[in-house]
Amino acid sequence: MEGKxxxxxxxxxxxxxxxxxxxxxxxxxxxxxxxxxxxDCDGKLSVKELQPAVADLGAALGLPAxxxxxTSDHIYSEVLKEFTHGNEENVSKPVFKEVLSDILxxxxxxxxxxxxxxxxxxxxxxxxxxxxxxxxxxMVCIFSEIASxxxxxxxxxxxxxxxxxxxQGMPPASDSWVISNVxxxxxxxxxxxxxxxxxxxxxxxxxxxxxxxVALHLRExxxxxxxxxxxxxxxxIKRLLSNKFELDKMLDAAMKSxxxxxxxxxxxxxxxxxxDFLAPSAGLPPIGAxxxxxxxxxxxxxxxxxxxxxxxxxxxxxxxxxxxLGSVMLQLEGNPVSVSTNSxxxxxxxxxxxxxQPSS
Length: 360
Prior knowledge:
Layout: E1 8-11, H1 14-20, H2 23-37, E2 45-46, H3 47-60, H4 70-84, E3 90-91, H5 93-113, E4 116-121, H6 124-131, H7 135-146, H8 153-163, H9 176-190, H10 200-220, E5 223-232, H11 235-242, H12 244-255, E6 266-267, H13 271-278, H14 291-303, E7 311-312, H15 314-334, E8 337-344, H16 352-355
Antiparallel strand pairs: 1-4, 2-3, 4-5, 5-8, 6-7
Helix pairs in contact: 1-5, 2-5, 3-4, 4-5, 6-10, 7-8, 8-10, 9-10, 11-15, 14-15
GO molecular function, one term: calcium ion binding
InterPro entries: EF-hand-dom_pair (IPR011992), EF_Hand_1_Ca_BS (IPR018247), EF_hand_dom (IPR002048)
Protein name: 39 kDa EF-Hand containing protein
């Protein structure tokens, strides 16, 4: 079933670029923000004083809090890298403006690569789902997956909600906030009969009753969800490997991030570090963000005996890094990895346009 989202906003970075290029608006915002962040009024910003600006930017873009989504976490990470570039302890207003511009444009690049859709889930799609002819077969399938003699009927219902997707009108029920603010209040009001036996028939009837109540709850208190989808098919690696100039440039830059011995040789154990450095240019997620991708990278490293700890010359190290990328590419071309993330945005949704307007 394809639910139609009545309220969605795609964050692809285009509005950020437009605002940064508006010199008058951007300069006014920088003046206001700098004064707000400079708590000790010394005319400079410490890294600690800069951190709230990162959080504000993320909230304004509708990004979930750090730690909630691999996609948004990568964007936050890129922002922090821009702020700490050069390890400046204090930042002047001109530098703050330059860095903030870089941060915003970096965010725009990240969002262009992996757009985040902001959904306002108001119960309409959930009601449509339970009234649709596909409801019963889909829920029968879910029940067969979760059925357990150790669970009560109510526990089956909770687990079933965790299986529903935003396309079916349900915010992520695995989120503790959704459980405590949506599911638990509804279940208290609905009072599922604890004496009912756990059967498919009882499950279908009771789940539908609870789902309709959840939909009414969402109508009164909509939930904002940041939804992102990424497919890693190896095309980004293929583009990088086919462009020798760009590949050499990125590998040379990556070499600066790994230690060398006195003769300039590098331990193969640092290949994983270099691959993480190359990830954005190769259209890959950062290591640690997607389990399936981590497994593919680990397999590729093992195939090349890349983690045997041997010391090699820089040129051989670069060649190995390119070969590992090629191996990852071949695996992804044969079996692409798709990742979907849904995170509740707990703060009121604010547009980037609103954020960059100077306060009166």
